[in-house]
Every structure is written in C-alpha cells, then in structure tokens.
Amino acid sequence: MTGFVIPAPAQAQLPVQGGGAFPVRRVYCIGRNYAAHAVEMGHDPDREPPFFFQKNPDSLDASGQFPYPAKTSDVHHEAELLVALKSGGTDIAFEDALDHVWGYAPCLDMTRRDLQGDAKKMGRPWEIGKSFERSAPVGPLHQVSEVGHPKTGEIALTVNGELRQSGDLSQMIWKVPEMIAYLSEYFELAAGDVILSGTPAGVGPIVRGDVMVVSIAGLNPLQVEVV
Ligand code: MN
C-alpha cells in the first residue's frame, strides 16, 4: 500500500447517544412498510414481498439542518426508525437477526416526491428522488444494551409543532428481523450497514424555515430545521 492517489473521502458516521461514533457502510431503505402509508401512495397494503432502495452513506446527516435540495418543488418528510448493524452475513435466520443489531435512531427519509413520481411513471430508478445530498437527517443512535429492540410504541413527526405523521412501530408490515433476514438473502450484510425501516402515513411537503421533529418511543427525538 503506497497511499491513495487522491485524498480519501471521510468515513460516514453517526453520533452515538452518550459519546462515540458509528461508522456507516451501506444504507438500505424499505418502501411501503406501513399499510396506511401504502394506501396514501395509491398501493394495495397486502403483504407483497418487500422492496428496497439505497441511499449513500454520506446522505446521512446529523447536523440538525436540512438544506432544501435543488431541482424540486415538492420535498416530503418521511419519519423512520433507523436500524444499525454491528455484524452481518448472508442467509441470516429470522431467529438470529436481532443479534446483529447494534442500535436504533430516529431519522428522516427526505424525498424529492416530484422527481420520484416522474421516475415511477417512467419505470426508472428512484435515486434521483431519494439519494441526494443530506437526504437522510439522523438523530442520536441508541445502543441496544440501553434501549432494547423497540417493537411497539409511537413513531410521530411534527412540523412547527403540528402533528403530521403518527403511527406505531407495531404497524410495520415487515418487522426488523424479517427485513434483516430478507436483505441477507440478496446482499451480504456487514457491520456498519443501516436500514431505514419505512414511514407511517401522513407524509407531506416542507418549506424552508420549517422545523421537523421525529419522536420514537424510547429514543431521544430528532429535530431538524429546513434551511
Ligand atoms: Mn421511506
């Protein structure tokens, strides 16, 4: 190893509640994982196989500010529970899946809904709507040893103090261990991978100056200002 020929990019990381940082390798996001949200987006809420898209590790942002992105006039909030893995593998059994989880954090899957809608109509990939700069604001990551595995309890989002999204973690169509087991059939999961576990109903647009707060039972909230 004689060294990199250009400066190496920074390791993507998430701040941990109580100190330290979690290094991020990959970011998987599930679509339509709460029935009421599937219905509001015009889909059948029956349990069809899950599907995933990806954001980039450097899409994660813990600054507390969300810069309104370029080339869109319809940016939506999606409040989600982030699952952070400490280990991985392939063909992980459902029964063993939670053993791979290091912790959980509140986060946002910010979406350029107009660009995503165009991509859907044309059968194109979603990245242009989903994987832009700082598209995944994240709050403090909590270790399993301190918060356990949140399976029930409220997941909610307010904008300027007004309730916009409200659901319960128990309403996930595909539960956290099911998502891990399923993903591991198609990908080799590893330490540093994170999964955004889907959003409850009530997604909608934000504008500059809005303050979003994601609250998940048992975790410290995430507050983000749109700038
Ligand atoms: Mn989402």
Give a verbal description of the structure.
- It is built from five helices and 18 strands.
- It is α+β, with helices and mostly antiparallel strands.
- It has a six-stranded mixed beta sheet with strand order 4-3-15-8-9-12. A five-stranded mixed beta sheet has the order 6-18-17-13-14, with no helix packed on it. Strands 10-7-16 form a three-stranded antiparallel beta sheet.
- The relative contact order is 0.26.
- The mean pLDDT is 96.
- The structure holds manganese (II) ion (MN).
- Residues 29, 78, 80, 109, 196, 198-199 line the site of manganese (II) ion.
List keywords for this structure.
6-stranded mixed beta sheet; 227 residues; 18 strands; binds manganese (II) ion; globular; 5 helices; 5-stranded mixed beta sheet; alpha+beta
Give a short account of the largest sheet: 6 strands, mixed
Classification by helices and strands: alpha+beta
Percent in strands: 25-35%
- The secondary-structure element order is EEEHEEEEEEEHHEEHEEHEEEE
Number of strands: 18
Write down the overall mean pLDDT.
96
User: What Rg, in angstroms, do the CA atoms define?
Assistant: 17 Å
Q: Please give the share of residues in helix.
A: 10-25%
**End-to-end gap:** 42 Å
Low-confidence stretches: none
Count of alpha and pi helical runs: 5
Shape: globular
Name every ligand kind in the structure: manganese (II) ion
**Biggest sheet, spatial arrangement of strands:** 4-3-15-8-9-12
